[in-house]
Write a structure and sequence with these properties.
The protein is an alpha/beta fold. It has two domains: 65 residues, membrane protein fhac (Ubiquitin-like (UB roll), Roll); 131 residues, Rossmann fold (3-Layer(aba) Sandwich). Helices cover 38% and strands 26% of the residues. It has seven helices and twelve strands. The strands form three sheets. Strands 7-8-9-10-11-12 form a six-stranded mixed sheet, covered by helices on one side. Strands 1-3-2 form a three-stranded mixed sheet. It is elongated, with a radius of gyration of 40 Å.
């Protein structure tokens, strides 16, 4: 019997050879990349939607309590009532700037306030109160004035260690030129420049003209301050004089480069 022919053997060999996989061209690879981008974008959208819902729609991150620090004269309940923080609102939507504005408007004693979200459920109020450097007596009451010249409170009783203003300007060219308001600002500036130890024993700041400010201290001592110019220099000179001559009764720093001390 005759064997297979050459043509038949070639066909059998081709039949035994495994088929090659189809070639995937650049077009197929680009399609896969686009699919990945679509899936990634969809994932990011879902994450963003979930984040928005958690921050705004859920009950997890809502304002539940307000804490206050830094108060001295003011009470925490006063501050928190004036702040009117929207308890129950999403914490992310709380307008911290509006809270700060309300506090400064309703409580003039507040000099500054930091309003900070305290995640996950709180808002903290860090208050800085104005400090009086001078008192103005009016109608049996006392108006507190800070170092910026702001009259921020009227009280019935004078606080300790805050000097009282005595504004008794003479009928001079100084008064006609500057006016009582300018002289008041001059007194405030002097009071704000006083060293802490001097401010604590100052009883009055007497102003008779722009360049004539006199301090009356406890123990009958007086300080001729002069004008409000060179205040920090005068403060340092006065501190040195009082340390060197603790029993002196009169100090003159109106010309800080040539100060003077006397017993009376």
């Amino acid at each position: 019997m005759a064997g297979p022919t050459t043509a038949q053997r070639g066909e059998a060999g081709r039949a035994d050879t495994p088929a090659r996989p189809p070639h995937i061209g650049p077009q197929g690879r680009r399609l896969t990349g686009r699919t990945r981008l679509v899936l990634a974008a969809a994932g990011l959208a879902l994450v963003a939607a979930a984040t928005v819902w958690v921050l705004y729609g859920s009950s997890w991150l809502r304002l539940e309590h307000v804490t206050t620090s830094g108060t001295d004269v003011l009470t925490r309940s006063e501050v928190e009532a004036a702040a009117a923080a929207p308890v129950g609102s999403p914490l992310i939507s709380v307008d911290t700037g509006a809270i700060a504005d309300r506090l400064r408007q309703k409580l003039p004693r507040v000099d500054s306030v930091d309003v900070v979200r305290s995640w996950p459920h709180g808002v903290s109020l860090k208050v800085t109160e104005r400090k009086p450097v001078l008192l103005v007596e009016k109608g049996g009451k006392f108006i507190e004035v800070d170092a910026k010249g702001v009259r921020f409170a009227t009280i019935d009783k004078a606080p300790p260690h805050v000097p009282l203003l005595e504004l008794t300007p003479d009928r001079s060219a100084s008064l006609r030129r500057f006016g009582s308001d300018r002289l008041l600002r001059e007194a405030v500036g002097v009071a704000g420049d006083l060293p802490a130890k001097v401010a604590g024993v100052a009883r009055t700041v007497r102003v008779t003209s722009y360049d004539s400010v006199v301090l009356e201290l406890t123990g009958g001592r007086t300080v001729m301050w002069g004008s409000g110019e060179e205040g920090p220099v005068k403060a340092r000179v006065l501190t040195a004089l009082m340390k060197a001559s603790p029993k002196a009764g009169h100090f003159d720093v109106s010309a800080p480069t040539a100060p003077a001390v006397s017993k009376s």
